[in-house]
């Protein structure tokens, strides 16, 4: 696609998202993404260690569905969407996950759908980072 003033930002964004590859990513971006993922997993482990975390996992178990993605800490397999939700909640329980703009904790929101969705489809680590 040739970018012209007539191309909408949505068209430009869609073109970028459908053509970017892992090899296009600067090493610093890959490294920071890995650190972001590890930080969220660590936060989820901390959340799981609390009684409140166990209750969040129990809710995820009650939701049912095909067991296809892992819950951090317990190792339980839940439906992909349920596992992503539970893991994101676990990552935020201690309120120690990263802060965006100094006010919002959103790390689990993109990380766990990528990790649990990647697990569901047997994606590679590179695929998950690119996601």
Number of helices: 6
Beta-strand content estimate: under 5%
Low-confidence stretches: none
Largest sheet: 2 strands, antiparallel
Count the beta strands: 2
What gross morphology would you assign? globular
Secondary-structure content class: mainly alpha
* SSE succession: HHHEEHHH
Range of helix content: 55-70%
Give the radius of gyration. 17 Å
Average pLDDT score:
91
Distance between the termini: 22 Å
Describe what you observe in this structure.
It is a single chain. This protein is mainly α. 61% of the residues lie in helices and 3% in strands. The chain contains 6 helices and 2 strands; from the N terminus they run αααββααα. It has helices at residues 9-19, 27-48, 51-63, 80-93, 108-121, 125-130; strands at residues 69-70, 77-78. The protein has a two-stranded antiparallel sheet with strand order 1-2. Strand 1 and strand 2 (77-78) form a beta hairpin. The chain is globular, with a radius of gyration of 17 Å. The two termini are 22 Å apart.
């Amino acid at each position: 696609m040739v970018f012209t003033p007539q191309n909408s930002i949505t068209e430009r964004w869609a073109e970028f998202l459908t053509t970017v590859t892992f090899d296009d990513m600067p090493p610093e971006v890959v490294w920071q993404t890995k650190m972001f993922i590890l930080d969220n997993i660590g936060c989820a482990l901390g959340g799981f260690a609390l009684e409140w975390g166990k209750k969040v996992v129990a809710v995820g178990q009650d939701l049912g569905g095909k067991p296809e993605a892992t819950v951090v800490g317990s190792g339980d397999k839940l439906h992909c969407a349920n596992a992503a939700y539970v893991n994101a909640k676990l990552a935020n329980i201690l309120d120690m996950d990263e802060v965006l703009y100094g006010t919002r904790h959103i790390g689990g929101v993109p990380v766990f759908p990528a990790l649990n969705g990647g697990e569901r489809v047997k994606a590679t680590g590179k695929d998950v980072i690119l996601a």
